[in-house]
Amino acid sequence: MSQAAHLDKLPPEPEKATLEGRNKVLGFWLFLGGETVLFGTLFATFIALRNSVLDGPTGIELFSLSITAIATFILLTSSLTSVFAIQAMHHKNIKNMLTWLGVTVVLGLGFLVLEIYEFYEYVAHDGFGFTTSAFSSSFYALVGFHGAHVALGVLWISLLMLQIKKKGLTTVTAPKIYVASLYWHFIDVVWVFIFTIVYLMGKVG
Amino acid sequence: MAHSVKKYRGLMDWITTVDHKKIGILYFAAGGLFFVIGGIEALLIRLQLMFPKGTFDILDGQTYNEVMTMHGTTMIFLAAMPLVFGLMNAVVPLQIGARDVAFPFLNSLGFWTFFFGGVLLNISWFTGTVPDIGWTAYAPLSGQEFSGTGSDYYAIGLQIAGIGTLVGGINFLVTIINMRAPGMSFMRMPLFTWTSFITSGIILFAFPALAVGLIYISFDRLFDANFFVTATGGNAILWEHIFWIFGHPEVYILVLPAFGAISEILPTFARKRLFGYSSMVFATALIGFLSFMVWAHHMFTVGMGDIANALFGVATMLIAIPTGIKVFNWLFTIWGGKIQFTTAMLYATSFIPTFVMGGVTGVMLAIPPADFQFHDSYFVVAHFHYVIVGGIVLSLLAAAYYWWPKMFGRMLNETLGKWSFWLFFIGFHLTFFIQHFLGLWGMPRRVFTYLPNQGWDTANFVSSIGAFFMAAGVIVILINAIISIKGPKAPADPWDGRTLEWSIASPSPEYNFKQLPLVRGLDAFWLEKMDGKKEMTPAEPLGPIHMPSPSILPFFMSLGLFIAGFGFMYRGYEFESAFMNNLFGYNIIAIFGLAITLVCMFLRSVYDDHGYHIEVEELQKEG
Fold first, then answer.
1. CB nearest to A34's CB, from B208, B245, B605
2. B236 exposed, middle or buried (CB, 10 Å; 0-12, 13-18, 19+)?
3. pTM for this structure?
4. What ipTM score was computed for the predicted complex, to two decimals?
């Protein structure tokens, strides 16, 4: 069966066409529910400990809103591009889907570069390491956990792009793309809270 | 198109299985093993406390702390949890008329992570660094300053086991939402399925909090973080909040499926439908919700202030309302019924008054001023053993006797069953009833010995005698389980049951239902039997059945985490050989372990599992 004929046979929402696909999507939503509690606990800890700075630097001294604003802009845009990828999937346009997924991955990498640069500055120039104070531990735990999620997402979506190239868009691969985009939106939403609670509130003091 | 799939036999079959029934048996076996280990630890505790100081000291203070910590941790996380999961695996897919769970592969992964987490925790006995911080692992006791590698075993062992629980919870939620047979609406689901559903929801929202808390302990200990270290600005009380935000719902995670099992067994042996089905469902959901609202009642004496204490006290008492609804519904279910006292029914009926006693002391503890008196005394020990042994273990035993024929295809011996019941039941009350009074007479909990002539000697002696009765009961249960291998074959429907699992053979075939059944109402199988039918009306024509392939990957994924756990634990440890120091110091072991897991995840993603089909001819041959 040629690729084009195969795509014609694919149902309109291939991610929900099979029971396995529907299970995967629902299971992933639930997993994100659990992740919400995970980040909720990290946020609660951060809020509880953010004033325990000891002799280390405070948020006001550390944070540069321009860098985090750019990071926010990049990550929010990547959420939009992942929506485009899903739309392309629904139009069965594999080429566009891969392009938009590629853009998403590049933006994710851009975000990571900024974050690593930020952490490097803190550690190398500001004397703000993981063990400096309770504030620093909770800061790195929260923001670092989110960064690790972004890194995993980048790897995951890249792997899925390779799979799409090999296997094409099927009712098996479509749910994977769909849940990866759900995941990407989730870490985006978490970042919005990090930007507000860690950086904006940190700047206010 | 039939794919040929390699079928394994013997040990490999058990390691690679993705069949929910076999995984249920694995959970039962592993949970049973840890239950026995935890039971031996309990006996050591009671032997030590049987006589006051100086008469018969078998444990020193340090060893006592280790035994007590491991008893609590093992019983909660490694015995009760897996036994509950074993039951859910064995029963839920059959009760909703499904061929398997939603994620068979993840189901296997859940079991193996739990198992390796439990093994890791217990390896501490052999390295001589056993957790000695209580099952609650309060900071700063669990920090670098006051405890050794044992605390790492606690944090990392539970972390790995916890992954399995979370995965299992998600699996059952999706299974119950998406895979019910035609006609099985939510309000036609048997109550055990309902309680498993709510329990899975609580797991989903409670376990991530524990995961984060355990990560903090590990970070504090292994990477010198400051979360709970007060000297560097951390907050020790924070751990208590995180732990109990998980820890209180955990009680309901365990007890709700126990309630569910009771709600199946009582109607079957009273030969009446469950009284107040919809109020039971409502009460279950309400308990699930309230379970997240009450965690700070474990912390009344911490100093949160009167308003917080009052609010959490009132919220705690609210739980008595849905629980009361349940208790009355159970009583009305057996009221006027044609009661048959099988072993399962004996356990189930004895559960009701026993659990009510645990509930009543719970309400007593929910009153903050009174709690200041009860706190950290044996009264608390008596209370939670009435809830956990009197509530959960009694109903798990009832459930085990009830569903054993379905799980194993063999009947348990009823005479031995009744012996085990009376030994265990009498032993239980003998052990724990008097501990209420020990607490009121001032005996603190978590002490390894006490001076004579404070009025505690006789009570402690009585309590220890009770423990021997319980041990004898458990031994009879084990004997019964072992001889059931050669016992009489179980018929499909030995108890004249009401729900779908009794409409198929014992043990059920690997595909469960040859044709998915059509469900026409609550107590689906009973309805058909009342209409004079022998089996369910099929909802689909006979066709080939798609099955998932067995896989070894879950085993290796969990093994990878297990190895990585050791890598992290011993990264700062000073070994005698330089080679070992390099291996652990540079995180080589940890990275190696994680790499195994990641490679397995990669393989799982890249290679699609096409599964295989059981063809119609094969199905017809099996009849």
1. B208
2. middle
3. 0.95
4. 0.95
